[in-house]
Structure formats: C-alpha cells, structure tokens
Prior knowledge:
With 325 residues, the chain is α/β, with parallel strands linked by helices. The protein has 9 helices and 13 strands. The radius of gyration is 20 Å and the shape is globular. NADP nicotinamide-adenine-dinucleotide phosphate binds at residues 32-34, 113-114, 117, 138, 140-144, 162-164, 167, 207-208, 210, 229-230, 232-233, 260-262, 305-306, 308, 310.
Amino acid sequence: MPxxxxxxxxxxxxxxxxxxxxxxxxxxxxxxxxxxxxxTGRTTYVKGVNIGDVIVGGVVGQVLESNDPRIAKDDIVQGxxxxxxxxxxxxxxLHKVDPGAAPITSSxxxxxxxxLTAYFGLLDIxxxxxxxxxxxxxxxxxxxxxxxxxxxxxxxxxxxxxxxDEKVAFITRELGFDGGxxxxxxxxxxxxxxxxxxxxxxxxxxNVGGEITDAVLRQINTRARIAVCGQISQYNSEEPEMGPRWxxxxxxxxxxVEGFLVQQFADxxxxxxxxxxxxxxxxxxxxxxxLIEGLENAPRAFIGMLQGRNIGKQLVKVSEMAAHA
Length: 325
Ligand SMILES: NC(=O)c1ccc[n+]([C@@H]2O[C@H](COP(=O)([O-])OP(=O)(O)OC[C@H]3O[C@@H](n4cnc5c(N)ncnc54)[C@H](OP(=O)(O)O)[C@@H]3O)[C@@H](O)[C@H]2O)c1
C-alpha cells in the first residue's frame, strides 16, 4: 500500500507551450486503480511512472494558452495530463468538454473512462439478457456503481458486493440494485450469494479478484459470462496470492471468462457516450462524486481510494473554473 511519504510536492516554473501545444490549468484530476500498476517499476499495458516522475492521469482543465487552432484559450478540455496545476500537452491529445452539456467532472466519470468501462464490459463482454442475475464487485465505486445500474436498465437483477454497510445502502437505496452485501462483515460469501441470487449468477463483472471472485464462481449458472475488469485485491501484493481453484466450474458450467481493456473499444466511444449521456439526462443513471480539495491531497485521495474510503468516483479538485482563464 503506498504511503503519503512516497510522494513529493514540487514547485517549478509554469511550462510554456510550443507550436501545436496548449497550456492547461487543472480543475479536477482523477485518481484510479490502474495508477497503482503504473507505480510498480514494471511496464504493464501502459508505460510505468518512474521514481521522480510526475504521475500521469485523467485531468479536466481550462486552457490558458494555445498554439494550435484546434484548441482555444478558455476551452475546457480533458486529457491524460500530470498531477500538476499547470501542464503542457499536444493539442491533438486533448478532448473538448462542453460545460453546458453536463457537469465537467462527468468527463472523468460517467461520461469518461469509468463509464465506458462499465458500458462495454457489461454490454459487450457479458451480453446480459432480461431476467438474468448480474453480480458486480467493488459495486459502490466508479465502474461498479454504473455496471449495476446499466444491468437494471437492461432489466436484469443486480447484486453488488462492497466494503461497508454505507456502500451497500447506497447501491440498494439510491441506485436501485436489488441487493448487496458487505464483504468485510459477511462471514460466508457463498451462503450470502445463494440467498441473494436464488436463481444463480448469469453474469459476474469482476473488479476485485481474490476470495470474492472464488465465492462468485461457485454460484455461476450454465453459460455464465464473466468479465475480468480489474483485480484490485491483488494490486498491492508483492507475490501472487494462492487460493482455491474453481476453474473446474468453468468446464462444468461451460462458462466464458474474458478480460478486457476499455481502450480496445476506442472506435466505439462515441456510440457509448451518446447512450450514457441519454441515460444520465433521463436520470436512469445516477452518480456520486467523492471530492477531495487541493492538489497536495492527491496522494491521500489515491491511497484512500485503494483502501475503499471512496463512495462513487474519487476526484481531486485542484482549482476553480474561471470565467476567463
Ligand atoms: N479493464 C479496464 O479497462 C478498466 C478500466 C477502469 C477500471 N478498471 C478496474 O475496475 C476496478 C474498479 O475501478 P474504479 O475506478 O471503479 O475504482 P473504485 O471502485 O471507485 O475504487 C476502488 C474500490 O476497490 C475496492 N477495493 C479495494 N481493495 C479491495 C480489496 N482488497 N477487495 C475488494 N475490494 C477492494 C474499494 O471498495 P470497497 O470498499 O468495496 O472495498 C475501493 O473503493 C479496478 O479493479 C480497476 O482496476 C479496469
């Protein structure tokens, strides 16, 4: 588990944009589980962040200066920038955000990477059918809270697994999940899943791995579909965790397990954003943001998210949007 003392806040001159670049002042930055994998010193599917580097992540910000016709001063943009107050980036890597269409933070959440992950992971990888039972882990987080709601839109039974009673109340009372349980206080996951999923599990959207996944696999139905979205229970492990092996279940139940990365659907993002935007406007999708103020508190927000302190999407507010940058 990272510690706040692993991070350093450094003052530096504001960078100047070269031709084709823009200078962006961060308004909000996103802290996400994948960042933990970037801090391992290894290259996984993305380049790692080395000791001394600025951490890279999703940022929504305001353009202060642009040397490219695609982006203008004062535009609100979203991009992979640094945990920095001021960043310079190639204009072609920035996406304009319309502040009139939706709150700008949604470009880091329901209308951003987590929303796209929930949309494609559930609908394309799992193909849920009306009446089926969908179970999702890390259910009160950014991706999980959207997965359960999309399952409900598709007329499925949605069951969430999360790490506190408050989170379970949030997904069942505010988001419309049919049931859920707190894995930190439930002694027998399998018995609880049997109670909550009397017809078995047709779809499992796995955000966590480990013992929770072992328990869900024992409850799957014939032709179940399992999307492996993340394995957050393992991200801070130094050695791979050994555990019960339920792969035989996949044979007997002729089930399909598929890992995915949201980027593999990049050529269909527009389709997903149109649909997610419509569900938001129709209030079929609800979301909650967990805001921490101040760039200096980004490490606290990041560590808190890894420890499950967030309900909904963890964001850091860096500065106020100005009428004129
Ligand atoms: N494949 C992709 O393209 C893709 C894209 C985005 C995200 N992801 C993955 O999706 C998952 C959710 O990401 P997110 O951004 O929505 O984060 P999030 O759910 O908002 O935050 C992470 C949550 O993980 C839970 N958690 C932490 N340690 C855990 C453990 N040992 N066992 C069980 N749960 C634990 C915590 O909630 P509790 O209180 O419930 O423990 C915490 O709130 C992550 O695994 C992430 O890597 C994958």
